[in-house]
Write a structure and sequence with these properties.
This protein has 347 residues and is α/β, with parallel strands linked by helices. It contains 14 helices and five strands. The chain has three domains: 79 residues, no CATH class; 111 residues, no CATH class; 86 residues. The structure holds zinc ion.
């Protein structure tokens, strides 16, 4: 059979074509072009057990090496992976800083997906761990980190609006904080496909407070001709979106079940906020009786209000009762955070 690449244009990838390289790799980009890399066996083999095996084989493997094929005086290995992803893999092996992604960028899961799959296939373990640790760092792993992210997101939206005003733009013409914060649907898909379970609780919780109408791509395609479109108003308020169409059926089922469990938890809260208290002040007893039920779709945020000394219901109480209700709310928030994985996990 004629070599596929003999019919295509060979394109040397300049920054990954080393004159002293001792192995040439061909990867077809499409029917017309083949990317050509000239690399060092020792560098590839030192990072990947699979490459090490491949290069130590006495006979060419049927899968990847065509016998006696030479290019520029060097043996050729033919790989059949996605050309862009394999280029990313080689670049990462030679230049590790090429895989430093912008912190919390909504596109990170899309960018790393193919590369991560290759690190698994070729057992490039260190690189895989480096990429995964970046993905993990984008999502809070504790209630404390969640609160920090929430705080930063709020400040970010204020700064964006401030900048728009300084540049003479209307608020709805400005960018949204959503452009700088992690997007949950692509993260959930990546978490399942690349085994990063640690980010699932936070990503699902973020998804649970996003409406299906708040769609990442649709909102970005909105015409600026209609400044009164409701999405623009939500944008200005710091609304968040998700790439809803990326989710598979199991994700939607997990989301629905998780939301049901959150609802039940919210109903339980009212009961656990209302233990028997002994306080001499009638005012306190009235407030204890009427501790409001969290009603919003964001239970962690609702409970945060209960943790505040200066907001209702703590506001109207004596010092001892206020401290008690704040303490109970903090404990409930911690419990809730700890159970998110169970709420949104598989049955
Ligand atoms: Zn009291």
């Amino acid at each position: 059979m004629a070599s596929f690449s003999s019919l295509t244009t060979l394109i040397q990838i300049a920054d990954l074509y080393f004159d002293d390289g001792n192995i040439v790799v061909f990867v077809d980009r499409d029917l017309e072009a083949t990317a050509v890399f000239r690399l060092h066996k020792s560098i590839l083999a030192s990072q990947s057990a699979v490459f090490a095996d491949l290069f130590s084989l006495p006979a060419p493997s049927k899968d990847t090496v065509e016998s006696n094929e030479m290019y520029d005086g060097v043996p050729v290995v033919r790989m059949h992976d996605n050309a862009k992803d394999i280029e990313g893999l080689f670049r990462a092996l030679y230049c590790p800083s090429s895989i430093l992604f912008k912190r919390r960028h909504p596109d990170t899961p899309l960018k790393v997906k193919g590369l991560l799959a290759l690190t698994t296939k070729y057992q490039v373990d260190r690189l895989r761990e480096t990429i995964i640790s970046q993905v993990r760092a984008d999502w809070p792993s504790s209630i404390f980190e969640w609160d920090v992210l929430e705080e930063e997101a709020g400040q970010l939206q204020d700064e964006i609006l401030q900048e728009a005003l300084q540049n003479g733009l209307e608020p709805w013409q400005s960018r949204a904080a959503d452009d700088y914060l992690p997007e949950p649907a692509s993260a959930i898909r990546l978490a399942y496909e690349a085994s990063i379970p640690e980010i699932i609780p936070a990503a699902f919780y973020q998804l649970s407070r996003t409406e299906p109408s708040q769609d990442y791509d649709r909102w970005r395609a909105l015409s600026n001709d209609d400044p009164f479109h409701e999405a623009h108003c939500d944008w200005i308020d710091g609304a968040r979106t998700a790439r809803w169409s990326m989710l598979v059926q199991e994700d939607l089922l997990s989301l629905a079940r998780g939301k049901e469990k959150l609802q039940r938890f919210a109903e339980e809260i009212h009961r656990s906020m209302l233990p028997v208290v002994t306080c001499c002040r009638m005012g306190c007893l009235d407030v204890w009786k009427d501790v409001p039920q969290p009603v919003r779709k964001d239970l962690l945020r609702d409970l945060k209000e209960f943790c505040s000394e200066t907001r209702y219901p703590g506001k109207g109480m004596c010092g001892a009762c206020r401290q008690e209700i704040n303490r109970r709310a903090k404990r409930l928030r911690g419990d809730l955070w700890g159970r998110l994985g169970e709420f949104f996990g598989e049955e």
